[in-house]
């Protein structure tokens, strides 16, 4: 009997009553109302939420233009009301449940749109966008062109045109380890490799910031790249045989540019790359032919005195006459307020097609050391002092720092004479 009473209270409105209903609320039973306000009509479900709060849930417009529309409208409203009552029986608020479904649907739609947008942002598009916004306005035209060209030439097309959000670290690592030098297709060049990875890291970081991807695989592979590329053992720098050094220096003197002069100076003084690049006029006394390298710039952390040869002094007087910069002896051609980068002298070797024969370090130091030792140009202690090699024996170190001034001057003078003596140039080397 109780169930019969409950059923009797539902579905109270007929199609005709719905069509003819006037202003006000008209009950269909069980909390379902037809609400008419002026020209508008709607279905409303009135209920008590599990929290005890009385609420009304809108179920949409009540269509009443025809019997067919009225019938379809009340059927849809009763179905929604039935679903709402089921939720109430389960202890859920139907309004909260509907809002939750809407939120999920909206989030899904937004995610879909975001995914579609990310699909359009390929690595190539992100790199060119970053290049246009950041690199071009802050770098020289030449450097800007080289920046994007290095990525276009070394990143495989399949990866270059892939959505940036889909690129993962393992595949990027594989691509990076495939980078080859333009001079030698059989060898990886770490400088090129690191430069490309660093630029990709900046591109991925920018894409992360603009929510075009969520990870930076170029950053993730940094350690893996170091692990995959064996480091050269100390003392294994490729060096030019000293018998070919005079011919090389003759060619180097014909090369133009500040970087070529810096390399020439480094060879004449047997200096480390950083010492020559960071040389300052305040460290140099041309009249005394002396270059004092501060301890802060030296590998061993001790002040180093270089007794320069006549060719080295002559080179510096040429640089002084050019008045390129009041501080730096070899300023960057692109940014005169800074010294050159550590790639400058390596680039000179590349232009001379010598990178497969020697490194800058090997040319400036190992070639000098081999010549001095093989020819007996000076005692081993004097040679080591010219190279500023740290003495492991502290007693000898204290003694050696105070000695050899004239011997070192004579050794570097002999080295300068050897390098500039055209009689030493081998016929085959001169022809090259």
TrEMBL record:
InterPro entries listed in its UniProt record: DNA_brk_join_enz (IPR011010), Integrase-like_cat_sf (IPR013762), Integrase_catalytic (IPR002104), Integrase_DNA-bd_sf (IPR038488), Integrase_DNA_bind_dom (IPR025166), Integrase_recombinase_N (IPR010998), Phage_int_M (IPR053876), Phage_Integrase (IPR050808)
UniProt keywords, alphabetically: DNA integration, DNA recombination, DNA-binding
Record Gene3D superfamilies: 1.10.150.130, Integrase, DNA-binding domain (3.30.160.390), Intergrase catalytic core (1.10.443.10)
GO MF: DNA binding
All copies of domain Tyr recombinase, residue ranges: 235-413
CDD domains with a match to the protein in the record: INT_P4_C (cd00801)
Alphabetized PROSITE patterns for the sequence: TYR_RECOMBINASE
Record-level GO BP terms: DNA integration; DNA recombination
Family: Belongs to the 'phage' integrase family.
Name of the protein described by the UniProt record: Tyrosine-type recombinase/integrase
UniProt organism field: Ramlibacter monticola
């Amino acid at each position: 009997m109780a169930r019969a009473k409950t059923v009797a209270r539902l579905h109270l409105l007929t199609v005709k009553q719905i069509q003819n209903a006037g202003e006000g609320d008209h009950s269909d039973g069980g909390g379902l109302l037809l609400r008419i306000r002026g020209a508008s009509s709607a279905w409303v479900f009135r209920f008590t939420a599990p929290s005890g709060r009385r609420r009304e849930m809108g179920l949409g417009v009540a269509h009443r233009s025809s019997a067919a529309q009225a019938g379809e409208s009340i059927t849809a409203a009763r179905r929604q009301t039935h679903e709402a009552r089921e939720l109430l029986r389960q202890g859920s608020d139907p309004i909260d449940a509907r809002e939750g479904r809407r939120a999920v649907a909206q989030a899904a739609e937004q995610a879909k749109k975001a995914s579609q947008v990310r699909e359009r942002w390929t690595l190539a598009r992100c790199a060119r966008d970053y290049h246009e916004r950041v690199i071009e306005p802050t770098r020289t035209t030449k450097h800007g062109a080289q920046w994007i060209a290095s990525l276009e030439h070394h990143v495989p097309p399949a990866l270059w045109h892939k959505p940036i959000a889909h690129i993962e670290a393992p595949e990027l690592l594989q691509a990076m380890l495939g980078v080859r030098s333009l001079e030698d297709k059989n060898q990886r060049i770490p400088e090129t490799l690191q430069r490309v990875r660093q630029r990709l890291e900046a591109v991925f970081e920018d894409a992360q910031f603009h929510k075009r991807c969520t990870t930076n695989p170029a950053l993730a592979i940094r350690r893996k790249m170091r692990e995959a590329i064996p480091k050269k053992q100390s003392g294994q720098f490729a060096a030019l045989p000293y018998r070919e050094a005079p011919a090389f220096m003759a060619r180097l003197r014909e090369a133009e540019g500040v970087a070529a002069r810096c390399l020439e100076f480094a060879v004449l003084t047997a200096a480390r790359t950083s010492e020559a690049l960071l040389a300052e006029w305040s460290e140099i006394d041309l009249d005394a032919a002396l270059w004092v390298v501060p301890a802060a710039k030296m590998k061993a952390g001790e002040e180093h005195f270089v007794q320069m040869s006549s060719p080295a002094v002559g080179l510096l007087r040429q640089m002084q006459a050019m008045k390129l910069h009041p501080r730096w002896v070899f300023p960057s051609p692109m940014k005169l307020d800074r010294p050159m980068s550590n790639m400058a002298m390596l680039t000179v070797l590349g232009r001379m097609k010598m990178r497969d024969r020697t490194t800058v370090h090997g040319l400036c130091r190992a070639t000098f050391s081999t010549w001095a030792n093989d020819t007996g140009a000076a005692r081993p202690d004097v040679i080591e002092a010219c190279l500023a090699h740290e003495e492991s024996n502290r007693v000898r170190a204290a003694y050696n720092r105070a000695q050899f001034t004239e011997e070192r001057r004579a050794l570097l003078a002999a080295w300068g004479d050897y390098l500039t003596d055209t009689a030493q140039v081998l016929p085959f080397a001169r022809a090259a």
